[in-house]
Write a structure and sequence with these properties.
single chain, two-stranded antiparallel sheet, Cytochrome Bc1 Complex, Chain D, domain 2, 34% helix, 3% strand, mainly alpha, two-stranded antiparallel ribbon, 12 helices
Length: 350
């Protein structure tokens, strides 16, 4: 068995082994405390299987899903870049810029996991910067149907998935893979996005230094990171970046410069998780802040009249910055699958 298939099998066992998981007693207290659970939630209507995961992996890397056959999910979510693209804003089909920075899909299986909701429903997990989609299935559906992302101008929203279904049905390897995952003649819009979501649920990192510390391994978190955690809380960062995912998954208005994007309305955007944050620069919905120092500076001068959650929030000062960075590194030093298939069944280059 290849290392990739072994890793997938381990994740599938965790996904299907039981329905819920109790978070370990934190090694430290506070709103930002709590390790990620080992059991990954999946929705009842899309139980995880290895056949779905393997199929979804191929689809994730295959440009056959795009209208012009020139872009894949992995084009904006590269495993070598922590499943982002390191761009200010992403490039859609025909290399045309879109208006938002690509968020990582790492740990999105845990979206919705907060201090107040320790067992979120996978079918209602908030996705995208504006939380416009719920569930990884609908997250996978969105870019394929979006004009400027994967669809392109050759097809309208009603045409693109029937076209993709037709293409996949003509490729014997995909026909066989869908049969194995869902049964005969099962290629459809729903089974396509269910497969991609099943694969994305394996892209988790639940054993970084912070998680190990929260599970009782006192030496896992450096002294600098522990000071950073204290500063993080002292400065009110955990007003929004709380819970095991370091996000309240709520919409907030920050007044980020250089953007006419109104987000979910009135310039509000969902709090991003800080998991793997050190690997996923640049930052903010428009990628306008190139590094963590710029983020810290932004919060030193943020207008706390824009959102009640900003009251009492300030960015780390110069004496605290290195320690807070050490904390964020501890949220980013775990391991995850960085492999990609050598080829995809369509024969297209990904």
């Amino acid at each position: 068995m290849t290392p990739h298939r072994l890793a997938v099998l381990c994740v599938v066992i965790l996904l299907t082994g039981c329905g819920t998981d109790v978070l370990a007693t934190p090694g430290a207290t506070g709103r930002s405390s709590g390790a990620l659970p080992f059991v990954i939630p999946d929705p009842p209507q899309n139980p995880t299987s290895m056949a779905k995961v393997e199929l979804g992996r191929l689809l994730f890397f295959d440009p056959v899903l795009s209208g012009n056959r020139d872009i894949a999910c992995a084009s904006c979510h590269s495993p070598q870049l922590a499943y982002t693209d390191a761009r200010t804003v992403s490039l859609g089909t025909a290399n045309v810029p879109v208006n938002r920075n690509a968020q990582t899909v790492l740990n999105t299986a845990f979206n919705g996991l907060t201090l107040n909701d320790r067992n979120p429903e996978a079918s209602t997990a908030p996705m995208f910067w504006d939380a416009r989609a719920r569930s990884l299935e609908n997250q996978a559906r969105g870019p394929v149907k979006a004009l400027g992302e994967m669809r392109g101008a050759a097809f309208d929203e009603m045409q693109i998935f029937p076209e993709v279904v037709r293409r996949l049905a003509e490729i014997p390897a995909y026909a066989a893979a869908f049969d194995a995952a869902f049964g005969a003649n099962a290629i459809s819009e729903d089974t396509i996005v269910q497969s991609i979501a099943a694969f994305e649920r394996t892209l988790v990192d639940t054993n970084d230094s912070y998680d190990r510390f929260q599970r009782g391994e006192a030496a896992a978190l450096s002294a600098a990171a522990q000071r950073g955690l204290a500063a993080f809380r002292r400065n009110g960062c955990d007003h929004c970046h709380s819970g095991p995912m370091f996000s309240d998954f709520q919409l907030h208005r920050l007044g980020v410069a250089g953007s006419a994007d109104v987000g979910a309305g009135n310039g509000t955007f969902r709090t991003p998780s800080l998991r793997n944050i050190s690997r996923t620069a640049p930052y903010m919905h428009n990628g306008s802040l190139p590094n963590l120092d710029a983020v810290f500076q932004f919060y030193r001068r943020v207008d706390d009249r824009l959102d009640p959650a900003l009251r009492g929030v300030r960015g780390p000062d110069r004496n605290e910055a290195a320690d807070v960075k050490a904390l964020l590194e501890a949220l980013s030093d775990g391991t995850f699958d960085t492999s990609a298939p050598a080829t995809v069944p369509s024969g297209l280059i990904h």
